[in-house]
Design brief:
alpha/beta
Chain lengths: 260, 260, 260
């Protein structure tokens, strides 16, 4: 956690431009979370402009939550530009495993765009890695532990950082596995909290070139701000606002208090 | 109201999957409301995946608030699958009567997909039922009372539960008319509160196979939580957050206090 | 400021219908802001219905924040109908200058639909006016002052009211330049606050036929409500809710206190 605050300061000072091609449900949340932490979000999905926009972004977040044909096309165009220019790509395979379209689109993006970071819940990560032949199925009730082994194998073979979020979060690359145990159960009752975690990975990846450190710092920030917000919240409604306030206000001493 | 809390507990225990094909404006609100009450929302609108998604849902919510051609196609595909499998469909004819596209799409969905529940404000319900020949026109300033008679006739002929929301809500099927008088006027100043009511009907329909009871329980929940939220709110902004908190926190004794 | 409250009362009494063809990120925010101030928002973007919807609106807001081909087509259809019927058009050229698609679409809408009001930040306004040959480039770090001269020239040549928002807001037509210095820096950390300003211009333009006065009143309202909200807010999350509450609650005496 020692370098977490250094990275938060870097985001606030450099305002990395995070290009999001994301889903309709969470666009507002994730834009607000990125602004609150200090990044500069842009949402653009037209096939006519995504190459241009991705080309000058600090990172590209691709989230498949509300897919359709044209959007998939735009994701692949932007992803290839980002990949060519070494702009980090963070992929959120929302609902992978639920429909064929989602699973196949996820695999296509991984193969053609080579994301640096993939973040999902255990079911989604298992769906992604099982098509690789390492797990048997997908079960949305699975805990994050259940996906660690296949995520590790996938991280090695595809050279990608895997983030499994849940009650405990795992951040995994070929050499290392980090864990984050902060957070509050009520966060799962706010739509798009996972998508927000992915976007926040994009903010850190925009200023830290090590995908493992960037996503570890993102998950720490999510967990710490979630706990700070939960103290003030009376339910999922007020939680999401206090969470944005916490992202905006987080200080070095707040982080120190979570050193446990 | 006696079985209301039983149904809320059933939603919390079973987390019915509510598949929403809804409008861009309210997706976030309705997902959050469904999560707060305990259901599991999914938004998916691609023609390539809606049949698959609707096929394993507990209920399907179709909301025409921001229509376009591809989305209408997806609504009809999902609606037919749901209808074939006896998955309850809840239709929100947002703005029916305002444009030809909305009125015609509404009638097409009703004819081809056979929804269990239709929920709208008085103007929308009159627009839907008048094309059936029973009312003269549409006036958005109409009170919910004005639509009761034509809704009743429509309920009989189409075998559907009609929900008219307004200062007083009416829940109507061929045999019975129920009323709900809870709520707060400020709720009309929060965008998508009507759409949220429709989504909450979807949550109850996912665990209660009687459409009249499911929608009556949904409207009671909306009204009671609206009143609880209004006590804490200073305006429409804070109201919507306290409303989500209230959905999340509602207990048997809260309901008992509203027995009047 | 003397007629500001008169106009707010007129919005509350007449509920002007503001037709928005806007971006996915802010639809919810702007609908809520319009409802809170007392207007009646409608969002509709299908090429099949926008002409009909724009035709009975009090004003038309066009915002290019998340463009795509079909939406551009709809903007032009609705814009031409509004223009023919003297329904005021308010244009928000979000991200003009960032991509060719955005800059070109902006110029096309200006040429074909003749908006009454154009509102953007300094970079966007410079992008719009420089293609007109008066400025050298676009820099998102520019202060609002930097765009005043070219905005004035553009206002004269195109007969349009230009609104440049920033720490200081400028409202400019061919004869006059007004300034608004209210507001709070935290407003820039809430996504869509600029888009909300544009929508609020739409509410005032719906009841006040003078575009300069309408946009001046809109920017005063934004600034005053932003300051009221900032007193209660602990960050950008809570700010946006208190801001909506402030729009809903603003009274004549609140305005008087800002007379400085």
């Amino acid at each position: 956690m020692d370098n977490l605050y250094r990275d938060i300061k870097a985001i606030r000072e450099n305002s990395p431009l995070v290009h999001n091609i994301t889903n309709y449900v969470v666009m507002n949340n994730t834009a607000n979370a990125l602004l609150s932490i200090g990044a500069s979000p842009v949402m653009a999905h037209a096939v006519e402009e995504v190459a241009e926009m991705a080309g000058f972004a600090s990172s590209l977040v691709i989230n498949i939550g509300t897919l359709s044909e044209k959007w998939i096309e735009a994701m692949l165009i932007a992803g290839k530009v980002a990949s060519e220019r070494n702009i980090p790509i963070i992929l959120d395979p929302v609902g992978a495993g639920a429909t064929k379209l989602r699973t196949e689109t996820t695999m296509k993006i991984i193969d053609e765009c080579r994301p640096s970071i993939i973040r999902g819940n255990a079911s989604e990560i298992l769906a992604v890695t099982s098509s690789f032949g390492k797990t048997k199925g997908v079960d949305s009730t699975q805990s994050s532990d259940s996906a660690v082994d296949s995520a590790k194998q996938f991280a090695i073979e595809k050279n990608v950082t895997m983030v499994i979020s849940g009650e405990k979060d795992y951040i995994i690359n070929e050499n290392e596995t980090k864990e984050v145990s902060f957070g509050n159960a009520m966060m799962a009752k706010v739509t798009g909290m996972g998508c927000t975690a992915t976007a926040i990975c994009g903010a850190f990846a925009g200023i830290n070139s090590n995908p493992l450190d960037a996503s570890y710092h993102a998950m720490l920030t999510m967990g710490i701000c979630g706990e700070i917000a939960a103290v003030k919240a009376e339910g999922p409604g007020t939680l999401q606002l206090h969470f944005l306030d916490a992202l905006y206000n987080i200080k070095e001493k707040d982080i120190a208090e979570f050193r446990r």
